[in-house]
Amino acid sequence: MVVSPPHPFDPITPTEIQLAVRILEATFPGVSLRYKRIDVNEPIKKDVVPYIEAERLRRPLPAPPARLLYTLFHRLDTGAFYKAILNADSRTIVYAKELPREVQGPIDVDEITEIEEMCMKHPAVLAEIEKMQLPPGVTVCNDPWMYGTDSETETRRLFQCFMYLVEVDHPQNNHYSLPCKFSPVFDGLTHELIRMDYLPGGADHANTETQPWKPVKTIQYAHDILDEPLRTDLKPYIVQQPEGPSFTSDGNSVYWQKWRFRVGFNIREGLVLYNILYDNRNVFYRLSISEMTVPYGDPRAPYHRKQAFDVGDAGFGMNANQLSLGCDCLGHIKYFDGYRNDSKGNPVQLKNVICMHEQDNGLQHKHTNYRSGAATVVRNRQLVLQMICTVANYEYIFAYIFDQAGGIELEIRATGILSTVPFDNENGKTVPWGTNVGPGVMAPFHQHMFSFRIDPAIDGFKNTVYYEDSVPMPEDENNPWLVGYTTESNVMKTSGSANTSIDRHRVFKIRNDNINNPITYKPVSYKLQAAPSQMLLVSKNALGYRRAEFATKPIWVTKYQDDELYAAGEFTNQSRRAEGVETWVRRKDNVENEDVVLWHTFGLTHNPRIEDFPIMPMERVSVMLKPDGFFTKNPALDVPQSAQAFNKSTLHAEATSCCGHTGGASVSKAKLYKRLD
Amino acid sequence: MVVSPPHPFDPITPTEIQLAVRILEATFPGVSLRYKRIDVNEPIKKDVVPYIEAERLRRPLPAPPARLLYTLFHRLDTGAFYKAILNADSRTIVYAKELPREVQGPIDVDEITEIEEMCMKHPAVLAEIEKMQLPPGVTVCNDPWMYGTDSETETRRLFQCFMYLVEVDHPQNNHYSLPCKFSPVFDGLTHELIRMDYLPGGADHANTETQPWKPVKTIQYAHDILDEPLRTDLKPYIVQQPEGPSFTSDGNSVYWQKWRFRVGFNIREGLVLYNILYDNRNVFYRLSISEMTVPYGDPRAPYHRKQAFDVGDAGFGMNANQLSLGCDCLGHIKYFDGYRNDSKGNPVQLKNVICMHEQDNGLQHKHTNYRSGAATVVRNRQLVLQMICTVANYEYIFAYIFDQAGGIELEIRATGILSTVPFDNENGKTVPWGTNVGPGVMAPFHQHMFSFRIDPAIDGFKNTVYYEDSVPMPEDENNPWLVGYTTESNVMKTSGSANTSIDRHRVFKIRNDNINNPITYKPVSYKLQAAPSQMLLVSKNALGYRRAEFATKPIWVTKYQDDELYAAGEFTNQSRRAEGVETWVRRKDNVENEDVVLWHTFGLTHNPRIEDFPIMPMERVSVMLKPDGFFTKNPALDVPQSAQAFNKSTLHAEATSCCGHTGGASVSKAKLYKRLD
């Protein structure tokens, strides 16, 4: 229930979804429309900055920027696919354009449901199932996938349905344990069967005709159908905040420990953070995961096309879990909701898609003066904003973690279920591009490549990206003992890409050339603690390379443009090339002391372990943004001392309890600090 | 109070310290001895393995291995420095040998106290203080440092005392803010002043005569002498375990979630973990930090000798904080104690030097079946063993973190206070090898290099170290679509070193060639998720390189030998070269399917930020050991579901509460799983 108009950074509201439908119906009178996407469009930055600066400086607010909506839809009469930008304030169309035939929009919820159901009823599929001669009680299901790309000329909208056996009638039966060897390809609009693919059964490229099924037991993960008994010795661990949390919020605006920011949400990126201030200073304008792609390393058809773009093809917001109190998040939890549209244009509420809570991450800083034994101990309280996305088999958990010393961490966890393929792996058979995870089932190697889009505002909206390498000093008279080292600095003056370097301890930083730190005498700055990763393994000559060129370099710097949000471009589904960062940097814009955007590609080359099956212990990768000369000293000095009266820890029996000071062990604690007059 | 004999892996007891003194007094009748080190000596591995295997397999125990003690001491008559190994069972000396003149033992607590006090009374020091013309109330203190090495011929035991001004009479006054420009060098045995060093005052190598002090305000960190008020909006965050912890312990033996291991402690390495089993299978024999070194990058005398070896020169055990309930650790805490000796041979208790507790690290695994909306959610409960060491200005927090899926993480946090030097930095002056952190004070660049010693026992005591790189397949008929990638494996057959590689996603693994996984068909194995880091920056021609050659390569593999424990050798204080891993690998032992040791060097190149001053927000680096084909599926499947009844989270007001299942947002939750008969 929206009482006041949405803030420029607020997610779309149900009223706005309904307004969009009315505007488009009025624009195409008498035409049936099928709505693929109705969402907020990013506000025009030059129009929103005066507004948010007035908010920050507590000045009278100017007119807010126009509230724009982004829509994608099909005309059911002609089949044409359209994009339209709407102005929700004036209730008008800004523009509507028909998209070229080869442009495929993202998948939507209703579409995937239709494809899945249609596949299960198709005669060709039923015929294959018949050939398997399944025993009673064993049925079949499918996961529809985006078809991907292996051609420069395909214009049909295609889906590849991967088929699995359902051995146990249970809502969490693990069908990924029993993949089938046939896979239909459908036209997503006409629902025609294009082709029945047969998957390789062995270690080579030969595919397999559908044979009667040789029963294999499913490797389950759901607790009530496990073979083994559950552990009984895990004791409760309860987090309580009897005085409530340290955060306050007003709608999507959050305040915590000198941080202030707005929580955004859209169907494509999911959680987005806007207008991040620390102690009322600008730090970041916008943070998001702008794309991720997961290419598979199994070289054989049809797997060569397995390269989902989970943001552009589908949407993290669309796939965000609606979180449960006490299951997903521990402690005192606040939730944020979102909205999406269905194919008829009805708003659908997405409850609890983002959770927010505090956590304790151990010690933040400590020092014991060994002479006196007196110590300063401050704990590391953090604020977490989290979203969990289910993308068919996989789960991704995205968390932004704020600390009290000006740091922001992006932590990504991968869990859920490996993508599996059939493989007749009895008698010692293996493949060099995958891991056997069970009888008859293999998990192929793959990479998860993320693009972290960082739109900085380090003390203002004109910044510069540079990097510093740590290098030994030459062996000359300035370095007579041969121990010296310094840093070499390189400014990224024009838009382009850059490499990380462990050997040179390369650190990328973002600074404001117009504001100097009065003690370091250098411009105020933030540094990126990157996650240096192996880049895309596909050949430069593969279509997958051109579609995901963002994933070939760890660092890209572009000059801000309003419509440049997604590292692999706007339309990734069945794309032939990206039209993302690699295209924008070719403009060679000046990016020194400009409104810049830094895109950090990082990832996980994931060669599955058998321990990742049937459900994967989370694998974690993490990137941090930390102040570097932004402050004149540690900004968390004023966080109170960690004390037992506050923390209420309990002592395990057998030990004796301690006393006041923590002593450095190097000097007996009885020795106090002495005055030496 | 020791009731039963210590286990072979138990720390030294006070009785044993006293026994050592009696044995040595009997061996050197009538000679006054000054005891530098009395500690356990590592048990002989071939003697202890049958014992621990009998424990593991619940067989009758053989005789335990001999309980050996390690002692270092001086004869006060001749000044000679001795090492002796004692047998505490037979109460005899195994051997005693006089060490060469150039071998310096580590520092000890009493010695450092004496040097510090002697320095403050020395006439030459008092004369310099006089020259500073300090106002009333401002006094001087010093931090004695190991002298380091810049000569192949020095045989004196030397200390360099770094001097600081104490502006405020408070037990936590931050003297590091006001470094003085003179620094005496003393002979540690005779207490003679060897030399008065004068430190550079500017950006060049020129040193500075002591001048009258121009008052500068100290940048403080202790809460009650801060300029700014404390934050008042941090609400309590309390961890409770009303049913107690999930761990059990019996002396130093710990059991938690199928893990069983023994907690060791010694003065040099501090916390050591022994005999780590998961589900009664051998995983690791011993884990420890075998050395760390911190070379500084300021090329100018006397800083060229700043390269502490905090394990070998001093000792993490010696410097371990005695922890306070509710300050250092949150939740339900168990402590372990240790003992050291003083210079007279008296036992000194080190209470609470290791803490153990559980923590919750978010989600462990989750999957939502998007068709049914049903989800399996399991949280990531961990067991932490932690030690905090104060090394003059710096603090290091070492934590071993066990998870329920067979993983062990070594996490190291650096905090405390930067090492500072004086620098007349008014009017824009900077140096290329350091950061201004306040008026008149600079923090030089430096590296923290750690050696993690991993003595594996992957399902047994003969293992092999190998590494796998992920590489694209050639562009040929086996890879027609140009997407394929595989792994290339390299076995380390002879002792040596190896590099990490991000570009090739190199992963080091440890396997047991004698035991195959029945599903992957590969040997059972653990993998090392390393922390690829910049290696030592000092020149190959510098003495500091030869002293710390372990820090020039990220991976070393040696064949186990009982006395090869410390990566830079046994005696690091004022060493001229290491005699550690770089020496042992030259034997070119066969290390394939052998009793091997893997040494992982990793670190932080630390170019200080001003935000690291006056006390440093912790900087974290982390290494993980994870099963890789050790199990036949995820070993944590049997951890119960995360549920509100167990976790008792609370909902922040304003939101409405949720309902049962977490839904994947891709399908409406009303759609249950359907049978397709």
TrEMBL record, chains A, B:
Homodimer. Transmembrane segments: none annotated. The modification 2',4',5'-topaquinone is found at residue 394. Residues 239-637 form the Copper amine oxidase catalytic domain. The active site is at 310 (proton acceptor), 394 (schiff-base intermediate with substrate). It is an enzyme of class 1 (oxidoreductase). It comes from Penicillium chermesinum. Belongs to the copper/topaquinone oxidase family. This is Amine oxidase.
